[in-house]
UniProtKB/TrEMBL annotation, chain A:
Belongs to the bacterial solute-binding protein 1 family. It comes from Phyllobacterium bourgognense. The keyword Ion transport does not apply. It is found in: Periplasm. CDD domains: PBP2_TMBP_like. InterPro entries: Bact_solute-bd_prot1, SBP. Keywords: Periplasm, Signal, Sugar transport, Transport. Residues 1-24 form the signal peptide. It comes from the Bacteria. This is Multiple sugar transport system substrate-binding protein.
Automatic annotation (TrEMBL), chain B:
Belongs to the binding-protein-dependent transport system permease family. GO terms for biological process: transmembrane transport. It is found in: Cell membrane. This is Multiple sugar transport system permease protein. PANTHER family: BLR7065 PROTEIN, SPERMIDINE_PUTRESCINE TRANSPORT SYSTEM PERMEASE PROTEIN.
From TrEMBL, chain C:
Its main location: membrane. GO terms for cellular component: plasma membrane. It comes from Phyllobacterium bourgognense. It is found in: Cell membrane. Residues 67-258 form the ABC transmembrane type-1 domain. One of its GO terms (biological process) is transmembrane transport. This is Multiple sugar transport system permease protein. InterPro entries: BP-dep_ABC_trans_perm, MetI-like, MetI-like_sf. The keyword Cytoplasm does not apply. The chain crosses the membrane at residues 7-29, 63-93, 105-125, 137-162, 183-203, 235-259. Belongs to the binding-protein-dependent transport system permease family. SUPFAM superfamilies: MetI-like. It is a multi-pass membrane protein.
């Protein structure tokens, strides 16, 4: 045993004499997996290949695990890590990280590429903290074949009207998805639920992602926003206990309780939602734009790919609303090579780079005339820009340092209501009290 | 005869004590300061000392008590299930495994996969459209229940945990069971004792230390469950699957309430000290009564 | 008859306990397309593409490096914990040294989520240059393994008849001599048990692996999660399954090898009785 110990120890000593890593000049911490990584790799390669870039300014990429990414990043930044010069930031976390970062001047041309409203997704207290690289929002995905059949069949239309009267209190006529209100969508979701309508060709009318997770609140909150909801008013009062929030919360609960969404929806997030919609047993899904490529790819979603329709989220009493947030890259305060980092970011903000980024699979939000240049290769970016421009919103206070904990709080309380552990009044009262504490700091 | 030469023994414990001081001395000190401070990720190096407010906040937080109750219930139930199943299997399968020790290997497999991954895998296994469990339930019975809603998630997680860790109990129990010398059994058999009598009167008492030890370890591990629950349900709808470590983790990283998270840990630490002393006292008293 | 019953129980137990592992194994041989339409236990067109994805080394994903990092860190975390707890366990079992404070302190370390030490440890490691090193991660894993290691050793030593010590003492052996010459060999099953469980625990640790490494010393559990989302926001179940299977192989191998130590010394354990 002792011998064994000795051998192991000497082996360990050998192993752990660290293998000094090649020190690249500008280290970029990117968003792992997905199209963002592919696109970032492509532009980084192009940047390094330029003759004007000194060896000391070449970029090297670094990626963390997507699980716990923000927890790890927070520990790194709070402890003043210099492991990266440029790091990822997102609209909803910008207030949290701004104090560990350095503002960056992107030059006057950036506004001509992305537009002021998109640059704003990377601003905090009036300062620009990063280049917006990708924009995320939500699409309403639906099954064209099912909706067409519904619209064409008088018997089905009658049934639809009957169901909507019973569950929503109003007789509704089926409509084309691009003119849906949230009630139309809800009626459709109920019509296609086997538990409501045993003749439904599919098991569920929709798939709601209701896991206790902050990203799910971002998906859902467009229902509240479309009815005029907001976190707080201009003078800083928390306005979460509003008719808009009540309507939106009740709508989800009604659909879930009626069986319009899978039984385990309370544990569903992005992946589960895709799998459910992709199985062909679900008629509609409100889901991130990033899912479009997977859901419309016959190799990945053979059951539905040919029949997926995409429209903007439905309208409420205050019109249409679509949650937007940007991902971007900014400079770490403890960066070792700040000039080099700034140089790379400025280059990222030019039109040519943005177009290259888009061609490589990224989803930048571009001004219409810029997006037009790649409309053929990336028609989805035109839609993305359109929706973002027309319906995009950010809740008041959702870029503050407390935005993250606020989303967490809402996720806990609202799922508590949806799962029947709390009344609506309790959930809203708790949320309001918690938000007052968090946002007034 | 116990050798109570305190100074002589000190040197034996010194590597452990030294290691603890070196690696946990500073963190414990910092954490104690943090637990008395208003501190978040923005002022890690300059916490503002405010007294025992964090402790008050934790003790007054209904979610803290809910999480404690979840952990306690989860720990006790999974430990009992794992020990009962493990013991039953160890005794019943012992004649098979004794002759072919390789049979143990397949039973040990679940221990080799990281609990975090197992939790993730259950997201697939239990998914209504791509998971095998609901698929076969629909195929055979025409319906499948909700596994992860607020009412059922607890029991689903109990099954997940029990399936993974019963092998731990099984292995320890089997080892202890095989270590009982055969002549002890044979002697009792000659005296006319039935297999069941031998089990309850001879074997189980001999295995007692292992039984207690295993139950204790499994209870602690169930109590502090984190990885598999966190990857499967997170903190659960309305916080319904929040174990104490999940409560602490979320306070720490998600809310940035570092003082509160550490205060909760200190309370947990003190409570487990009390629990441990009580346990030792009880077992001493039990032994005293027996002799 | 009873023998048949035993085999049946064995088969049921093996299948039930391994259910998630079996599903993982099956999923690892399905293509992404098949996973989305076929949840059943048969595979209509088995494929090795998931394993190819996982085993291919690219500039970001290098499973061999992760395996190696995990191996190094887990060995440090297991062996070091054994080295420092064994003498302490001897003192506790034989001299009642530290029964009131040291022992409960260590045992309670298992109950407390160690993540609360993440920030101070991060700062210490930053200062000492241990961030993102296998040694640094190994030291943390040592802390993780202390409680189980100590409890098992104390129990094992306590079960050894004290007459052995007394006889050796009469022969003029020192305490160190007794510990090394008599206790270590007798406690072989306990050493093997601690090694197996310690190694598995260390190998499967996730949170500290995530927090304290970023590039060079990323362990398998954290590296594995790189594959889950390797081409999109969702989870690539096929690749995830394959990487889990590959990641479980080393502890499996160690378990099988060390298990012989436990069972092989069973007869030696008869000394106890």
């Amino acid at each position: 045993m002792l011998k064994f110990t000795k051998i192991t120890l000497s082996a360990l000593a050998l192993i752990t004499t660290s293998l000094g890593a090649a020190n690249a000049a500008v280290t970029v911490l990117g968003w792992p997996g997905g199209s963002e990584e592919t696109a970032l790799r492509a532009v980084a390669e192009a940047y390094n290949a330029q003759s004007g870039v000194a060896d000391a300014d070449k970029v090297e990429l670094l990626f963390y695990s997507r699980d716990g990414f923000y927890d790890k990043l927070q520990a790194d930044m709070a402890a003043g890590s210099s492991a990266f010069d440029i790091n990822l930031l997102a609209t909803y976390s910008i207030g949290r990280y701004a104090s560990y970062m350095e503002p960056v001047d992107l030059g006057p041309d950036a506004a001509k590429v992305f537009g002021e409203s998109v640059l704003k997704t990377m601003q905090f207290n009036g300062k620009q903290y990063g280049v917006p690289t990708d924009l995320s929002l939500h699409f309403m995905y639906y099954r064209k074949d099912l909706i067409d059949a519904l619209l064409a069949d008088p018997a089905a239309r009658a049934k639809y009207a009957e169901i909507s009267e019973k569950y929503l209190g109003r007789r509704l006529e089926p409509k084309a998805p691009d003119s849906w209100t949230w009630d139309d969508w809800a009626a459709t979701a109920l019509y296609f639920a086997k538990s409501v309508n045993p003749e439904s060709p599919v098991r569920y009318g929709t798939v709601l992602q209701m896991k206790n997770l902050l990203f799910n609140i971002m998906v859902w909150q467009s229902v509240a926003r479309a009815n005029g909801g907001d976190w707080m008013d201009a003078s800083g009062n928390i306005t979460i206990d509003s008719p808009a929030y009540r309507t939106a919360l009740e709508l989800y609960k009604k659909l879930y309780d009626a069986g319009a969404s899978p039984k385990d929806s309370l544990s569903y997030e992005y992946a589960e939602t895709n799998a459910a919609f992709g199985s062909g047993q679900v008629a509609t899904a409100l889901q991130w734009n990033a899912a479009a490529s997977e859901l419309t790819d016959p190799a990945k979603s053979p059951a539905v790919a040919e029949n997926v329709g995409i429209v903007a989220p439905p309208a409420g009493s205050a019109g249409r609303a679509d949650h937007i947030h940007g991902l971007g890259l900014g400079i770490n305060k403890n960066a070792k090579n700040k000039p080099g980092a700034a140089k790379f970011l400025q280059w990222l903000a030019t039109e040519d780079t943005a177009l290259l980024y888009a061609r490589s699979g990224g989803s930048p939000a571009l001004l219409p005339d810029v997006a037009a240049k790649i409309a053929k290769e990336r028609p989805d970016l035109v839609t993305l820009g359109q929706y973002a421009g027309a319906y995009g919103y950010v809740m008041t206070g959702a870029t503050s340092a407390s935005a993250f904990p606020v989303y967490e709080l809402q996720a806990k309380e609202f799922t508590g209501y949806w799962s029947g552990q709390e009344t609506l009044d309790e959930a809203l009262a708790n949320t309001k009290a918690g938000m007052e504490k968090l946002l007034k700091q | 005869m116990v050798d109570l030469d305190h100074k002589g023994w000190r040197i034996f414990a010194s590597p452990l004590v030294g290691f603890l001081l070196l690696f946990l001395g500073f963190p414990i000190l910092i954490d104690l300061v943090y637990s008395l401070s208003r501190v978040s990720f923005t002022n890690l190096r300059s916490p503002e000392i405010v007294g025992f407010g964090n402790y008050g906040e934790v003790l007054g937080d209904a979610q803290f008590w809910r999480a404690s109750w979840f952990s306690l219930r989860f720990g006790v139930i999974t430990a009992i299930l794992e020990c009962v199943l493990g013991l039953g299997l160890a005794v019943f399968l012992s004649p098979l495994i004794e002759k072919r020790s390789w049979l143990m290997a397949p039973l040990m497999l679940p221990l080799m996969v990281a609990p975090a991954m197992i939790g993730l895998m259950y997201r697939l296994v239990l998914h209504e459209f791509v998971g095998p469990v609901p698929y076969y339930l629909y195929l055979w019975f025409g319906d499948s229940p909700s596994f992860l809603n607020a009412e059922n998630a607890f029991w689903t997680l109990v099954v997940v945990e029990t399936l993974q860790w019963t092998p731990f109990a099984l292995l320890l129990f089997y080892t202890a069971y095989r270590a009982i010398p055969n002549d002890v059994r044979e002697a009792s058999a000659i005296d006319g004792a039935s297999a069941r009598q031998i089990l309850t009167a001879i074997e189980l008492p001999l295995m007692r230390p292992t039984l207690i030890f295993t139950f204790f370890i499994r209870f602690i591990d169930g109590f502090r469950v984190f990885d598999n629950v966190y990857t499967l349900t997170g903190s659960g709808p309305g916080g319904s699957t929040t174990s104490l470590p999940i409560y602490i983790y979320e306070a720490f990283f998600k809310q940035g309430a570092i003082g509160k998270a550490i205060a909760a840990s200190v309370i947990l630490f003190l409570a487990s000290f009390v629990g441990l002393y009580a346990l030792t006292w009880l077992s001493r008293r039990g032994k005293g009564a027996a002799s | 008859m009873i023998k048949l019953a035993r085999w049946i129980v064995y088969a049921v137990a093996a299948l039930a306990l391994n259910f998630p592992v079996i599903v993982t194994l099956l999923t690892s041989f399905k293509s992404g397309k098949e996973i989305s339409v076929n949840p059943g236990f048969w595979i209509s067109s088995p494929t090795l593409e998931n394993y190819a994805t996982v085993l291919q080394v690219s500039d970001r994903l290098n499973i061999f490096a992760y395996l190696f990092n995990s191996l190094a860190a887990s060995l440090i975390g297991t062996v070091l914990a054994m080295i420092i707890t064994f003498p302490a366990a001897y003192a506790i079992a034989r001299g009642r040294y530290g029964r009131k404070v040291l022992m409960p302190l260590i045992v309670n370390l298992r109950a407390v989520p160690l993540i609360i030490f993440a920030i101070p440890l991060y700062m210490m490691f930053q200062f000492a240059g241990l961030l993102d090193t296998q040694l640094g991660l190994g030291l943390i894993l040592t802390i993780v393994n202390l409680p189980l290691s100590l409890i098992v050793f104390v129990n094992a030593i306590a079960e050894v008849p004290i007459e052995i010590d007394e006889a050796a003492k009469l022969d003029g052996m020192s305490k160190w001599g007794i510990m090394k010459g008599m206790m270590l060999p007798v406690c072989r099953p306990a050493l093997a048990t601690v090694f197996i469980f310690g190694f598995i625990t260390a190998w499967n640790e996730f949170l500290f692996g995530l927090m304290l490494t970023s590039n060079r010393a990323v362990p398998m559990t954290v590296g594995a999660s790189f594959f889950f989302a390797a081409s999109g926001g969702g989870i690539q179940w096929g690749a995830a399954s394959a990487v889990m299977i590959v990641g479980a192989l080393p502890p499996m191998l160690i378990g099988i090898i060390m298990y012989r130590q436990i069972s092989g010394s069973m007869t030696a354990g008869a000394v106890k009785g």
